[in-house]
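Continuing the batch. This is chain 6 of the set; chains 1 through 5 are on the previous pages. Same settings as before, nothing changed between runs. Recording input and output for traceability.
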Amino acid sequence: MTYRRFFALALLGLCLQSSVVYAEGAATQWKKLNQQAQDLHQAGNYKQAIIVAQHALELAEANVGPDHPAVANSLNNLARIYQDQADYAKAEPLYQRSLAIWAKALGPDHPNVAIGLNNLAGLYYSQGNYAKAEPFYQRSLAIKGKTLGSNHPDVAISLNNLAKFYEAKGNYAKAEALYQRALAIKGKTLGSNHPDVAISLNNLAELYRAKGNYAKAEPLYERSLMIMEKVLGHDHPDIATSLNNLALLYYGQGNYAKAEPLYQSALAIKEKAFRHDHPDVAISLNNLAGLYQHQGNYAKAEPLYKRSLAIFETALGHDHLNVATSLENLAGLYRATQRTVEAEALEQRAASIRAINR
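Output for chain 6:
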C-alpha cells in the first residue's frame, strides 16, 4: 500500500472584506481586532485567531446591531478560520448568516453578496460537496459580471475559483477555458507582471501538471515564479508556494535532483516567514519526506513525516484531513520498512478521521 500524498498549493483569491463599524470609539478597535485576527490566522495560530475574531464579532453586534454589513464581515472572517481548521459544521452557519445579512442590507446583486456566495461555495468545495458548490460559484460569477463588468479583476477571481472546482471534478476542458479567461482579464487590467497574474499562471500550470502535460506546465510555473520574485522578493511565502509546485512537477517527471533543492528552499522560506509549527511548514516537510521516501532514503524521510504530523495535529486538530494524510504517508513508510503492525495502527486511525469528515 503506497500513499506519499503530496500537497500542491493553489494560489486563490481570498474574499475577506473590510468595512466600518459606525459607532464612536468602536470603529478603530474593531478594525484593530480584525487585523489582529487576520495576522494570527495567517501565522497559523488558529486558536487565538478565533478568540480575537469572536471578540470583533461581539463588538460589531453590540455597536451596530445584528443585521449590519459589518457584522456580516466579522461572521465571514470567523467562518474562514473555522473552514481552514476543517471545522465545517461551525463555519457553514456563519457563512450563511453573513450572506443573508449582506443580501438583506445591500440587495441581492451587491458585490458583497457575490463574495458571500463564493465563500460558501468554497466551503462546500472543501467538503467535496460539488453539487452544492457549483450553483453558488456560478451565481457569484453572474453577480460580479453584472455589477462590475465582465473584465473586472474580481470577475477573474470567480473564474479562477470555478475553474479550480471543475479541475477537481476532472472536467479539465472547462477548467482550462476559465483559467485562461481569468489570466487574460488579469493581464489586461493589472499588467503582465502583477502578482495576481502570477497566481493565474500557477493555477493554469497546476491544471497542466494534473493532466501530465509537463511541457506546458513548466514555463508557466517558471514565469509565475519570476513575477513573484520580482514583485515580492525571494523570501515571501508565495514564493515558497511556487517553488513547491515546481518541485512537484519535477518529482512527477522523476527529476529528483531538481525537485529536492526546490522543496528545501520552500521549507526554508516558510520556516523564516512563519512559526515553525505553521501548517504550511508541515506541508513542505511532508513533501520533502515523500521525495526522500521515493528515493529509499527512509532515515531522512521518517523524522520529517513525524514532524509534519505533529504540526498538523497541534495546529488543525486531531481529526483534520491533513492529519489523516500524514498518518497514511507515515504508514506507507512503515510498510516499506517492514513495520506492518505500526503501519496498520496508523491506517486505522486515518480511516477513522476520514469517516468523521465524510
